[in-house]
Fold Alanine dehydrogenase.
Amino acid sequence: MIVGILKEIKVLERRVCMTPAGVVAMVQNGHEVVVEKDAGAGSGFEDALYVEAGATILDTPAEVYAKADMVMHVKEPQPSEYDMIREGQIVFTYLHLAADEPQTMGLMKSKSICIAYETVEKADGSLPLLLPMSEVAGRMATQEGAKYLEMPMGGRGVLLGGVTGVEPATVVVIGGGVVGVNAAKMACGLGAKVYILDTNLDRLRYLDDIMPANCYPVMSNPSVLRELVLQADVVIGAVLIAGAKAPKLLTKDMLKDMKDGSVIVDVAIDQGGCFETSKATTHEDPTFVVDGVTHYCVANMPGAVSRTSTMALTNATLPYALEIANKGWKKAVQENEALKKGVNVVDGKITFKGVSDAWNLDYTDINELI
Ligand SMILES: NC(=O)C1=CN([C@@H]2O[C@H](COP(=O)(O)OP(=O)(O)OC[C@H]3O[C@@H](n4cnc5c(N)ncnc54)[C@H](O)[C@@H]3O)[C@@H](O)[C@H]2O)C=CC1
Ligand SMILES: CC(=O)C(=O)O
């Protein structure tokens, strides 16, 4: 198979979807790899390293789309790319289609096979290709919260951990999954008072066992949330209903009673966001203020720490990319249930329920197509 590695084009997105080490593995398995010029430069992987690994460098995305059987990205294809995608081509990347109607339509029209990293799901419910970026985004969420609490950044001038004789900040994390735990771990390590909310009692029990003493796992419901966000200096949104739009948990009404200069970080923005006032921002202009509360809503947070993220992401995606390349998408999906859950669009048909529900489109069971 010919595998195409595209350069990211979202604002200040510097990750790349395959390291030179990944190219070596592809080539060893008998595949040809074409890499768009400078695709890895933002993560410290120059073109020469890809050539040494056995890849060919192409100048433009159009050439990569024209040549490859499977194209890989980190972020979703942008509108300028929809018409370059060929019928029957495999597109393997983050898609987040339940939050992006134009992209859903663009990919349906392309008649390609679109496999979303974020909906690949193992039998235990874990999301192996979302997990590494959730670890990064969770850890970053606390850093961003701490940064925007500083007075020169428009915050209320509170140090997350406090100091001797002065109480620490209160951090409320909504969602106790991978993002939530990583955010809470960082906030606890810095000495904040941390509440972590989830609706899954087993998960809360687990968090109660493993988290440090300054972390309080709490059952999430609207009245508890209202009470806690009023005390909060930082609120981190980290809920997920896999592949579906995020529920709006922090309402406009709650927001207006929050402390002036407090910060909310909506990590779930890639699934539409879990705060009513959220709208996606970019690394170029990451924040905006509503009712005195700073909103940080960057949909590709890990892009800011591109080298760490590229390595963490490709550690997870490479085995799946190799399986698709080695077997072809149909056989790979027939033999790997986790990968099957990643298939969102096939030949113009939506095969992921969360996406068809989000846009009122017909749903086709993937088993009818393989
Ligand atoms: N903005 C960015 O750059 C990035 C965003 N993300 C996003 O972060 C979100 C969270 O991802 P993960 O932590 O990996 O998911 P996860 O599945 O590990 O955790 C989600 C948690 O939310 C909980 N939950 C669901 N509904 C809830 C509710 N109403 N109240 C409280 N908790 C609730 C679930 O029980 C689960 O424990 C996803 O939307 C993911 O796509 C992930 C990485 C990067
Ligand atoms: C999860 C995701 O969309 C990202 O890492 O950008």
Q: What stands out?
A: The longest helix spans residues 306-327. The chain has a mean pLDDT of 97. The pocket of NAI (ligand 1) is lined by residues 118, 130, 133-134, 137, 174-180, 197-200, 203, 220, 238-241, 246-247, 249, 267-271, 299-302 (CB under 6 Å). The chain has two domains: 2-120+306-368, 131-299.
